[in-house]
Amino acid sequence: MRAQPQASHFINGAYQEDLHGRPLESLYPATGEVIARLHAAGSETVNAAVAAARTGQKIWAATPPVERGRVLLQAAALLRERNRALSELETLDTGKPLQETLVADAASGAECLEYYGGLAGTLTGEHIDLGGSFAYTRREPLGVVAAIGAWNYPIQIACWKAAPALACGNAVVFKPSEITPLSALKLAEILQEAGLPDGCFNVVQGFGETGAHLVSHPDVAKVSLTGSVPTGTKVAGLAAQTLKHVTLELGGKSPLIVFDDAHLDNAVSAAINANFYSSGQICSNGTRVFVQKGIKEAFLARLAERTAKARMGDPMDEAVDTGPLVSQAQYEKVTSYIEAGKAEGARLVCGGDRARVEELPDGLFVTPTVFADVADHMTIAREEIFGPVMCVLDFEAEDEAVARANATEFGLAAGVFTRDITRAHRVIAGLNAGTCWINTYNLTPIQMPFGGMKHSGIGRENGHAAIEHYSQIKSVYVEMGDVESAY
Ligand code: NAD
Questions:
Q1: Within a 10 A sphere around the Cβ of 32, how many other Cβ atoms?
Q2: Catalytic status, residue 283
Protein backbone atom coordinates (compact mmCIF):
# COMPACT_ATOMS: atom_id res chain seq x y z
CA MET A 1 0.00 0.00 0.00
CA ARG A 2 1.59 3.15 -1.21
CA ALA A 3 0.44 5.58 1.48
CA GLN A 4 0.31 3.43 4.61
CA PRO A 5 1.17 5.55 7.68
CA GLN A 6 3.15 4.17 10.64
CA ALA A 7 -0.10 3.80 12.60
CA SER A 8 -3.65 5.19 12.58
CA HIS A 9 -3.47 7.80 15.32
CA PHE A 10 -1.02 10.40 16.55
CA ILE A 11 -1.30 10.99 20.29
CA ASN A 12 1.01 12.76 22.71
CA GLY A 13 3.72 13.16 20.10
CA ALA A 14 3.76 9.55 18.86
CA TYR A 15 2.00 7.23 16.44
CA GLN A 16 -0.44 4.82 18.09
CA GLU A 17 -2.56 1.94 16.86
CA ASP A 18 -5.92 0.78 18.17
CA LEU A 19 -6.39 -2.67 16.66
CA HIS A 20 -9.83 -3.03 18.28
CA GLY A 21 -11.12 -0.08 16.27
CA ARG A 22 -13.37 -0.51 13.23
CA PRO A 23 -11.25 -0.97 10.06
CA LEU A 24 -11.00 2.03 7.81
CA GLU A 25 -9.60 2.07 4.27
CA SER A 26 -8.36 4.94 2.19
CA LEU A 27 -8.91 4.50 -1.56
CA TYR A 28 -7.42 6.35 -4.53
CA PRO A 29 -10.59 7.52 -6.30
CA ALA A 30 -9.00 7.41 -9.75
CA THR A 31 -8.39 3.65 -9.58
CA GLY A 32 -10.14 2.24 -6.52
CA GLU A 33 -6.76 1.06 -5.22
CA VAL A 34 -6.49 0.74 -1.42
CA ILE A 35 -3.68 3.10 -0.44
CA ALA A 36 -3.85 2.69 3.36
CA ARG A 37 -5.56 0.53 5.98
CA LEU A 38 -6.27 2.06 9.37
CA HIS A 39 -8.50 1.60 12.40
CA ALA A 40 -11.02 3.95 13.92
CA ALA A 41 -10.36 5.17 17.45
CA GLY A 42 -12.44 3.54 20.12
CA SER A 43 -13.40 5.39 23.27
CA GLU A 44 -10.15 4.54 25.10
CA THR A 45 -8.07 6.02 22.30
CA VAL A 46 -10.22 9.16 22.16
CA ASN A 47 -9.92 9.51 25.92
CA ALA A 48 -6.13 9.12 25.71
CA ALA A 49 -5.94 11.84 23.06
CA VAL A 50 -8.05 14.25 25.13
CA ALA A 51 -5.97 13.50 28.25
CA ALA A 52 -2.75 14.18 26.30
CA ALA A 53 -4.24 17.40 24.97
CA ARG A 54 -5.21 18.50 28.47
CA THR A 55 -1.68 18.06 29.74
CA GLY A 56 -0.06 19.55 26.62
CA GLN A 57 -2.36 22.57 26.67
CA LYS A 58 -1.11 23.70 30.08
CA ILE A 59 2.49 23.73 28.84
CA TRP A 60 1.53 25.42 25.59
CA ALA A 61 -0.58 28.12 27.24
CA ALA A 62 2.37 28.99 29.47
CA THR A 63 4.67 29.33 26.42
CA PRO A 64 5.25 33.00 25.50
CA PRO A 65 2.94 33.87 22.57
CA VAL A 66 5.80 35.01 20.31
CA GLU A 67 7.41 31.61 20.83
CA ARG A 68 4.10 29.90 19.99
CA GLY A 69 4.07 31.95 16.81
CA ARG A 70 7.61 30.84 15.98
CA VAL A 71 6.56 27.18 16.14
CA LEU A 72 3.68 27.83 13.75
CA LEU A 73 5.98 29.70 11.36
CA GLN A 74 8.47 26.83 11.44
CA ALA A 75 5.66 24.36 10.70
CA ALA A 76 4.62 26.54 7.75
CA ALA A 77 8.17 26.43 6.39
CA LEU A 78 8.22 22.62 6.66
CA LEU A 79 4.85 22.36 4.89
CA ARG A 80 6.18 24.49 2.05
CA GLU A 81 9.41 22.48 1.85
CA ARG A 82 7.38 19.25 1.57
CA ASN A 83 4.61 20.67 -0.57
CA ARG A 84 5.06 18.24 -3.47
CA ALA A 85 5.01 15.09 -1.34
CA LEU A 86 2.05 16.40 0.67
CA SER A 87 0.21 17.36 -2.52
CA GLU A 88 0.75 13.91 -4.01
CA LEU A 89 -0.59 12.35 -0.82
CA GLU A 90 -3.62 14.64 -0.89
CA THR A 91 -4.24 13.75 -4.55
CA LEU A 92 -4.08 10.04 -3.71
CA ASP A 93 -6.47 10.46 -0.79
CA THR A 94 -8.99 12.81 -2.45
CA GLY A 95 -8.56 12.26 -6.20
CA LYS A 96 -8.20 16.00 -6.73
CA PRO A 97 -5.83 16.88 -9.58
CA LEU A 98 -2.21 17.48 -8.60
CA GLN A 99 -2.52 20.71 -10.58
CA GLU A 100 -4.84 21.88 -7.77
CA THR A 101 -3.30 20.26 -4.70
CA LEU A 102 0.13 21.73 -5.49
CA VAL A 103 -1.28 25.24 -5.01
CA ALA A 104 -4.46 24.98 -2.94
CA ASP A 105 -4.00 22.47 -0.13
CA ALA A 106 -0.75 22.22 1.88
CA ALA A 107 0.26 25.62 0.46
CA SER A 108 -2.88 27.29 1.80
CA GLY A 109 -2.38 25.45 5.09
CA ALA A 110 1.12 26.95 5.27
CA GLU A 111 -0.29 30.41 4.62
CA CYS A 112 -2.72 29.92 7.48
CA LEU A 113 0.07 28.88 9.86
CA GLU A 114 2.09 31.92 8.75
CA TYR A 115 -0.83 34.25 9.34
CA TYR A 116 -1.67 32.98 12.84
CA GLY A 117 2.03 32.51 13.64
CA GLY A 118 2.42 36.23 13.00
CA LEU A 119 -0.68 37.14 14.99
CA ALA A 120 0.16 35.01 18.05
CA GLY A 121 2.40 37.62 19.65
CA THR A 122 -0.08 40.45 19.03
CA LEU A 123 -3.09 39.00 20.84
CA THR A 124 -4.07 41.23 23.70
CA GLY A 125 -6.87 42.20 26.03
CA GLU A 126 -7.75 45.84 26.66
CA HIS A 127 -7.35 48.51 29.29
CA ILE A 128 -10.57 50.19 30.41
CA ASP A 129 -10.31 53.52 32.23
CA LEU A 130 -12.83 53.82 35.07
CA GLY A 131 -11.62 57.20 36.34
CA GLY A 132 -9.05 56.38 38.98
CA SER A 133 -9.72 52.69 39.12
CA PHE A 134 -9.52 50.67 35.96
CA ALA A 135 -10.35 47.33 34.46
CA TYR A 136 -8.49 45.18 32.03
CA THR A 137 -9.28 42.08 30.05
CA ARG A 138 -7.12 39.05 29.58
CA ARG A 139 -7.48 37.02 26.39
CA GLU A 140 -7.23 33.39 27.48
CA PRO A 141 -7.38 30.08 25.63
CA LEU A 142 -10.44 27.86 25.87
CA GLY A 143 -8.57 24.60 26.61
CA VAL A 144 -8.92 21.45 24.51
CA VAL A 145 -10.43 21.90 21.05
CA ALA A 146 -12.09 18.99 19.25
CA ALA A 147 -11.72 19.66 15.53
CA ILE A 148 -13.52 17.51 12.95
CA GLY A 149 -12.86 17.70 9.22
CA ALA A 150 -14.60 17.03 5.92
CA TRP A 151 -12.91 15.20 3.04
CA ASN A 152 -12.66 17.88 0.37
CA TYR A 153 -9.72 19.93 1.74
CA PRO A 154 -8.22 17.65 4.40
CA ILE A 155 -4.93 19.37 5.27
CA GLN A 156 -6.31 22.85 4.67
CA ILE A 157 -9.20 22.20 7.06
CA ALA A 158 -6.79 20.79 9.66
CA CYS A 159 -4.65 23.96 9.39
CA TRP A 160 -7.65 26.35 9.36
CA LYS A 161 -8.63 24.90 12.73
CA ALA A 162 -5.25 24.11 14.29
CA ALA A 163 -3.46 27.38 13.49
CA PRO A 164 -5.82 29.84 15.24
CA ALA A 165 -6.49 27.34 18.04
CA LEU A 166 -2.76 26.89 18.72
CA ALA A 167 -1.98 30.60 18.31
CA CYS A 168 -4.42 31.28 21.15
CA GLY A 169 -2.79 28.65 23.42
CA ASN A 170 -5.27 25.78 23.03
CA ALA A 171 -4.48 22.13 22.32
CA VAL A 172 -6.25 20.23 19.54
CA VAL A 173 -7.59 16.73 18.97
CA PHE A 174 -8.30 16.50 15.24
CA LYS A 175 -10.48 13.85 13.64
CA PRO A 176 -10.11 13.84 9.87
CA SER A 177 -12.88 12.55 7.64
CA GLU A 178 -12.85 8.74 7.47
CA ILE A 179 -12.57 9.14 3.68
CA THR A 180 -9.33 11.16 3.77
CA PRO A 181 -7.42 10.21 6.92
CA LEU A 182 -3.82 10.64 5.81
CA SER A 183 -2.56 14.21 5.54
CA ALA A 184 -3.54 15.20 9.11
CA LEU A 185 -0.99 12.67 10.36
CA LYS A 186 1.70 14.40 8.29
CA LEU A 187 0.65 17.73 9.79
CA ALA A 188 1.02 16.23 13.27
CA GLU A 189 4.55 15.08 12.41
CA ILE A 190 5.43 18.52 11.05
CA LEU A 191 4.06 20.40 14.05
CA GLN A 192 6.06 18.15 16.35
CA GLU A 193 9.21 18.66 14.29
CA ALA A 194 8.59 22.42 14.43
CA GLY A 195 8.72 22.29 18.23
CA LEU A 196 5.10 21.93 19.32
CA PRO A 197 5.05 20.23 22.75
CA ASP A 198 3.69 16.67 22.86
CA GLY A 199 -0.05 16.43 23.23
CA CYS A 200 -0.84 19.82 21.70
CA PHE A 201 -1.94 18.45 18.32
CA ASN A 202 -3.32 14.92 18.27
CA VAL A 203 -5.02 13.01 15.46
CA VAL A 204 -7.64 10.31 16.00
CA GLN A 205 -9.17 8.50 13.06
CA GLY A 206 -12.74 7.39 12.83
CA PHE A 207 -16.29 7.57 11.58
CA GLY A 208 -19.15 9.64 13.00
CA GLU A 209 -19.23 7.69 16.25
CA THR A 210 -15.61 8.61 17.04
CA GLY A 211 -16.48 12.23 16.29
CA ALA A 212 -19.52 12.05 18.54
CA HIS A 213 -17.46 10.59 21.37
CA LEU A 214 -14.96 13.43 21.01
CA VAL A 215 -17.68 16.08 20.93
CA SER A 216 -19.29 14.66 24.08
CA HIS A 217 -16.06 14.41 26.06
CA PRO A 218 -16.35 16.48 29.25
CA ASP A 219 -12.75 17.73 29.02
CA VAL A 220 -13.27 19.24 25.58
CA ALA A 221 -14.04 22.98 25.75
CA LYS A 222 -14.74 23.72 22.12
CA VAL A 223 -15.84 21.92 18.99
CA SER A 224 -15.07 23.05 15.46
CA LEU A 225 -16.71 21.03 12.69
CA THR A 226 -16.50 21.26 8.92
CA GLY A 227 -19.18 19.07 7.41
CA SER A 228 -22.76 18.83 6.24
CA VAL A 229 -25.80 20.51 7.79
CA PRO A 230 -27.23 17.22 9.20
CA THR A 231 -23.90 16.49 10.95
CA GLY A 232 -23.74 20.08 12.16
CA THR A 233 -27.16 19.73 13.75
CA LYS A 234 -26.09 16.56 15.57
CA VAL A 235 -22.78 18.05 16.72
CA ALA A 236 -24.44 21.25 17.95
CA GLY A 237 -26.94 19.12 19.91
CA LEU A 238 -24.21 17.02 21.52
CA ALA A 239 -22.06 20.05 22.31
CA ALA A 240 -25.04 21.80 23.90
CA GLN A 241 -25.34 19.07 26.53
CA THR A 242 -22.07 20.25 28.07
CA LEU A 243 -22.34 23.87 26.85
CA LYS A 244 -19.26 23.77 24.66
CA HIS A 245 -18.28 26.58 22.33
CA VAL A 246 -18.97 25.64 18.70
CA THR A 247 -17.84 26.69 15.26
CA LEU A 248 -19.77 25.03 12.44
CA GLU A 249 -18.66 25.30 8.81
CA LEU A 250 -21.44 23.57 6.91
CA GLY A 251 -22.93 23.14 3.48
CA GLY A 252 -24.34 25.57 0.96
CA LYS A 253 -26.34 26.18 -2.20
CA SER A 254 -24.88 29.55 -2.96
CA PRO A 255 -26.07 32.02 -5.58
CA LEU A 256 -23.89 33.69 -8.20
CA ILE A 257 -25.83 36.56 -9.82
CA VAL A 258 -24.70 37.71 -13.27
CA PHE A 259 -26.21 40.95 -14.55
CA ASP A 260 -26.50 41.93 -18.23
CA ASP A 261 -23.66 44.43 -17.91
CA ALA A 262 -21.17 41.88 -16.52
CA HIS A 263 -17.83 41.20 -18.21
CA LEU A 264 -18.91 38.03 -20.00
CA ASP A 265 -15.66 36.07 -19.94
CA ASN A 266 -14.89 36.94 -16.33
CA ALA A 267 -18.38 35.86 -15.30
CA VAL A 268 -17.99 32.58 -17.20
CA SER A 269 -14.56 31.99 -15.60
CA ALA A 270 -16.04 32.60 -12.17
CA ALA A 271 -18.98 30.26 -12.84
CA ILE A 272 -16.51 27.55 -13.94
CA ASN A 273 -14.35 28.05 -10.83
CA ALA A 274 -17.49 28.15 -8.69
CA ASN A 275 -18.73 24.79 -9.94
CA PHE A 276 -16.00 22.62 -11.43
CA TYR A 277 -12.83 23.24 -9.39
CA SER A 278 -12.18 20.14 -7.23
CA SER A 279 -14.90 18.45 -9.33
CA GLY A 280 -17.43 20.71 -7.64
CA GLN A 281 -16.69 19.38 -4.17
CA ILE A 282 -16.43 22.78 -2.48
CA CYS A 283 -18.85 24.03 0.18
CA SER A 284 -18.93 27.66 -0.96
CA ASN A 285 -19.59 26.83 -4.62
CA GLY A 286 -21.95 29.13 -6.51
CA THR A 287 -24.16 26.33 -7.75
CA ARG A 288 -27.20 28.48 -8.50
CA VAL A 289 -26.04 30.78 -11.28
CA PHE A 290 -28.73 33.44 -11.83
CA VAL A 291 -28.16 35.00 -15.26
CA GLN A 292 -30.08 38.07 -16.40
CA LYS A 293 -32.12 37.36 -19.52
CA GLY A 294 -30.28 39.76 -21.85
CA ILE A 295 -26.95 37.96 -21.46
CA LYS A 296 -28.24 34.42 -20.94
CA GLU A 297 -27.71 32.84 -24.38
CA ALA A 298 -24.26 34.41 -24.84
CA PHE A 299 -23.31 33.25 -21.35
CA LEU A 300 -24.46 29.66 -21.99
CA ALA A 301 -22.74 29.48 -25.38
CA ARG A 302 -19.41 30.68 -23.96
CA LEU A 303 -19.77 28.42 -20.94
CA ALA A 304 -20.39 25.32 -23.06
CA GLU A 305 -17.51 26.17 -25.39
CA ARG A 306 -15.08 26.60 -22.50
CA THR A 307 -16.32 23.66 -20.43
CA ALA A 308 -15.68 21.39 -23.42
CA LYS A 309 -11.97 22.17 -22.93
CA ALA A 310 -11.83 20.59 -19.45
CA ARG A 311 -9.08 17.95 -19.39
CA MET A 312 -10.25 14.89 -17.48
CA GLY A 313 -7.85 12.13 -16.61
CA ASP A 314 -5.18 10.86 -14.24
CA PRO A 315 -5.11 13.36 -11.36
CA MET A 316 -1.35 12.77 -10.99
CA ASP A 317 -0.81 14.24 -14.47
CA GLU A 318 -0.28 17.96 -13.92
CA ALA A 319 -1.93 18.77 -17.25
CA VAL A 320 -5.23 17.30 -16.00
CA ASP A 321 -7.68 19.76 -14.46
CA THR A 322 -10.67 17.49 -13.81
CA GLY A 323 -10.35 14.50 -11.53
CA PRO A 324 -12.76 11.91 -10.16
CA LEU A 325 -15.22 12.33 -7.31
CA VAL A 326 -13.95 11.29 -3.90
CA SER A 327 -15.96 8.12 -3.25
CA GLN A 328 -18.46 5.67 -4.70
CA ALA A 329 -21.17 7.10 -2.42
CA GLN A 330 -20.49 10.65 -3.63
CA TYR A 331 -20.46 9.40 -7.24
CA GLU A 332 -23.86 7.75 -6.84
CA LYS A 333 -25.26 10.84 -5.13
CA VAL A 334 -24.05 13.25 -7.82
CA THR A 335 -25.18 11.10 -10.74
CA SER A 336 -28.60 10.63 -9.15
CA TYR A 337 -28.97 14.43 -8.95
CA ILE A 338 -28.06 14.65 -12.64
CA GLU A 339 -30.82 12.14 -13.40
CA ALA A 340 -33.22 14.18 -11.23
CA GLY A 341 -32.33 17.32 -13.19
CA LYS A 342 -33.14 15.59 -16.47
CA ALA A 343 -36.34 14.05 -15.10
CA GLU A 344 -37.59 17.35 -13.67
CA GLY A 345 -37.19 19.09 -17.04
CA ALA A 346 -34.01 21.15 -16.77
CA ARG A 347 -32.22 21.66 -20.12
CA LEU A 348 -28.89 19.86 -20.33
CA VAL A 349 -26.35 22.20 -21.92
CA CYS A 350 -23.28 20.02 -21.50
CA GLY A 351 -22.05 16.97 -19.58
CA GLY A 352 -24.72 14.97 -17.81
CA ASP A 353 -23.04 11.62 -17.82
CA ARG A 354 -20.76 9.26 -15.99
CA ALA A 355 -17.47 9.73 -17.77
CA ARG A 356 -15.01 7.02 -18.70
CA VAL A 357 -11.29 7.65 -18.79
CA GLU A 358 -9.68 4.99 -20.95
CA GLU A 359 -6.65 4.23 -18.76
CA LEU A 360 -8.65 4.52 -15.50
CA PRO A 361 -11.72 2.34 -16.04
CA ASP A 362 -12.58 2.22 -12.32
CA GLY A 363 -12.23 5.98 -11.76
CA LEU A 364 -15.24 7.83 -10.36
CA PHE A 365 -15.42 10.45 -13.10
CA VAL A 366 -18.40 12.68 -13.90
CA THR A 367 -18.34 15.14 -16.81
CA PRO A 368 -18.71 18.82 -15.80
CA THR A 369 -22.44 19.35 -16.21
CA VAL A 370 -24.47 22.49 -16.92
CA PHE A 371 -28.25 22.62 -16.67
CA ALA A 372 -30.10 25.68 -18.04
CA ASP A 373 -33.75 26.74 -17.61
CA VAL A 374 -33.56 25.50 -14.05
CA ALA A 375 -36.60 26.46 -11.94
CA ASP A 376 -36.37 27.32 -8.26
CA HIS A 377 -38.53 24.39 -7.18
CA MET A 378 -36.38 21.71 -8.88
CA THR A 379 -34.43 19.36 -6.62
CA ILE A 380 -31.13 20.33 -8.27
CA ALA A 381 -31.81 24.00 -7.44
CA ARG A 382 -32.63 23.34 -3.79
CA GLU A 383 -30.28 20.65 -2.48
CA GLU A 384 -26.51 20.65 -2.11
CA ILE A 385 -25.12 18.27 -4.76
CA PHE A 386 -21.38 18.66 -3.98
CA GLY A 387 -20.30 17.63 -7.46
CA PRO A 388 -19.65 19.20 -10.89
CA VAL A 389 -23.25 20.23 -11.58
CA MET A 390 -24.09 23.86 -12.37
CA CYS A 391 -27.67 25.13 -12.41
CA VAL A 392 -28.31 28.21 -14.54
CA LEU A 393 -31.49 30.11 -13.68
CA ASP A 394 -32.89 33.15 -15.53
CA PHE A 395 -33.97 36.41 -13.95
CA GLU A 396 -35.21 39.81 -15.08
CA ALA A 397 -35.05 42.26 -12.17
CA GLU A 398 -32.53 42.92 -9.40
CA ASP A 399 -35.06 42.62 -6.54
CA GLU A 400 -36.33 39.35 -7.96
CA ALA A 401 -32.77 37.91 -8.15
CA VAL A 402 -31.99 38.87 -4.56
CA ALA A 403 -35.26 37.46 -3.22
CA ARG A 404 -34.82 34.17 -5.09
CA ALA A 405 -31.15 33.92 -4.13
CA ASN A 406 -32.15 34.26 -0.47
CA ALA A 407 -34.98 31.70 -0.68
CA THR A 408 -32.95 28.83 0.79
CA GLU A 409 -32.09 27.56 4.25
CA PHE A 410 -28.39 27.87 3.37
CA GLY A 411 -26.35 31.08 3.61
CA LEU A 412 -22.73 30.20 3.11
CA ALA A 413 -21.59 32.33 0.18
CA ALA A 414 -22.76 34.52 -2.70
CA GLY A 415 -21.37 36.40 -5.67
CA VAL A 416 -22.42 39.18 -8.01
CA PHE A 417 -21.10 40.18 -11.43
CA THR A 418 -21.88 43.68 -12.67
CA ARG A 419 -19.99 46.75 -13.84
CA ASP A 420 -22.41 48.96 -11.86
CA ILE A 421 -20.55 49.61 -8.61
CA THR A 422 -23.60 50.89 -6.75
CA ARG A 423 -25.67 47.89 -7.70
CA ALA A 424 -22.85 45.51 -6.73
CA HIS A 425 -22.75 46.78 -3.15
CA ARG A 426 -26.55 47.09 -2.89
CA VAL A 427 -27.05 43.49 -4.01
CA ILE A 428 -24.35 42.13 -1.69
CA ALA A 429 -25.92 44.02 1.24
CA GLY A 430 -29.23 42.32 0.45
CA LEU A 431 -27.88 38.77 0.30
CA ASN A 432 -28.04 36.53 3.36
CA ALA A 433 -24.62 34.91 3.05
CA GLY A 434 -21.50 34.94 5.21
CA THR A 435 -18.85 35.14 2.50
CA CYS A 436 -19.43 37.23 -0.64
CA TRP A 437 -17.57 38.21 -3.78
CA ILE A 438 -17.97 41.05 -6.27
CA ASN A 439 -16.74 40.29 -9.80
CA THR A 440 -14.96 37.10 -8.77
CA TYR A 441 -15.81 33.89 -6.91
CA ASN A 442 -14.40 31.44 -4.36
CA LEU A 443 -11.26 33.30 -3.41
CA THR A 444 -10.69 32.74 0.29
CA PRO A 445 -7.53 34.54 1.41
CA ILE A 446 -6.59 33.69 4.97
CA GLN A 447 -6.99 37.32 6.07
CA MET A 448 -10.72 37.32 5.19
CA PRO A 449 -13.20 35.80 7.67
CA PHE A 450 -14.99 32.77 6.20
CA GLY A 451 -18.22 31.17 7.34
CA GLY A 452 -21.93 30.86 6.91
CA MET A 453 -25.25 32.43 7.89
CA LYS A 454 -28.52 30.54 8.50
CA HIS A 455 -28.07 26.75 8.31
CA SER A 456 -24.61 27.08 6.73
CA GLY A 457 -22.90 27.63 10.02
CA ILE A 458 -22.05 29.35 13.24
CA GLY A 459 -18.86 31.31 13.86
CA ARG A 460 -16.08 32.28 11.47
CA GLU A 461 -12.77 30.80 10.44
CA ASN A 462 -9.78 32.82 9.20
CA GLY A 463 -8.90 36.46 9.74
CA HIS A 464 -8.92 38.15 13.14
CA ALA A 465 -12.49 36.90 13.53
CA ALA A 466 -11.31 33.34 14.25
CA ILE A 467 -9.39 34.56 17.31
CA GLU A 468 -12.73 35.39 18.95
CA HIS A 469 -13.79 31.77 18.48
CA TYR A 470 -10.65 30.22 19.98
CA SER A 471 -10.20 32.47 23.02
CA GLN A 472 -12.23 33.91 25.86
CA ILE A 473 -12.10 37.19 27.70
CA LYS A 474 -11.56 37.47 31.42
CA SER A 475 -12.49 40.89 32.87
CA VAL A 476 -10.53 42.17 35.85
CA TYR A 477 -11.64 45.21 37.89
CA VAL A 478 -8.75 46.89 39.72
CA GLU A 479 -9.74 49.12 42.63
CA MET A 480 -7.32 52.00 43.21
CA GLY A 481 -9.24 53.57 46.10
CA ASP A 482 -10.94 52.44 49.29
CA VAL A 483 -13.79 49.95 49.39
CA GLU A 484 -17.08 51.45 50.60
CA SER A 485 -19.74 49.33 52.23
CA ALA A 486 -23.17 49.98 53.76
CA TYR A 487 -22.16 49.10 57.29
P1 NAD B 1 -20.10 14.92 6.86
O2 NAD B 1 -21.03 15.83 7.58
O3 NAD B 1 -20.59 13.63 6.38
O4 NAD B 1 -18.82 14.60 7.77
C5 NAD B 1 -18.00 15.63 8.28
C6 NAD B 1 -17.21 15.08 9.46
O7 NAD B 1 -18.09 14.86 10.56
C8 NAD B 1 -16.53 13.73 9.19
O9 NAD B 1 -15.26 13.76 9.80
C10 NAD B 1 -17.44 12.75 9.90
O11 NAD B 1 -16.81 11.57 10.32
C12 NAD B 1 -17.89 13.56 11.09
N13 NAD B 1 -19.15 13.13 11.71
C14 NAD B 1 -20.20 12.50 11.13
N15 NAD B 1 -21.18 12.29 12.04
C16 NAD B 1 -20.75 12.81 13.21
C17 NAD B 1 -21.31 12.92 14.52
N18 NAD B 1 -22.53 12.46 14.79
N19 NAD B 1 -20.59 13.52 15.48
C20 NAD B 1 -19.36 14.03 15.22
N21 NAD B 1 -18.78 13.95 14.00
C22 NAD B 1 -19.46 13.36 13.01
O23 NAD B 1 -19.52 15.82 5.67
P24 NAD B 1 -18.56 15.35 4.48
O25 NAD B 1 -19.35 14.49 3.55
O26 NAD B 1 -17.28 14.85 5.04
O27 NAD B 1 -18.24 16.74 3.77
C28 NAD B 1 -19.09 17.36 2.86
C29 NAD B 1 -19.91 18.42 3.53
O30 NAD B 1 -19.05 19.33 4.21
C31 NAD B 1 -20.70 19.26 2.56
O32 NAD B 1 -21.98 19.50 3.07
C33 NAD B 1 -19.89 20.53 2.47
O34 NAD B 1 -20.63 21.66 2.07
C35 NAD B 1 -19.37 20.67 3.85
N36 NAD B 1 -18.18 21.51 3.90
C37 NAD B 1 -18.25 22.74 4.47
C38 NAD B 1 -17.15 23.57 4.47
C39 NAD B 1 -17.22 24.95 5.09
O40 NAD B 1 -16.16 25.50 5.38
N41 NAD B 1 -18.38 25.53 5.29
C42 NAD B 1 -15.95 23.13 3.91
C43 NAD B 1 -15.90 21.86 3.34
C44 NAD B 1 -17.02 21.05 3.34
A1: 14
A2: yes
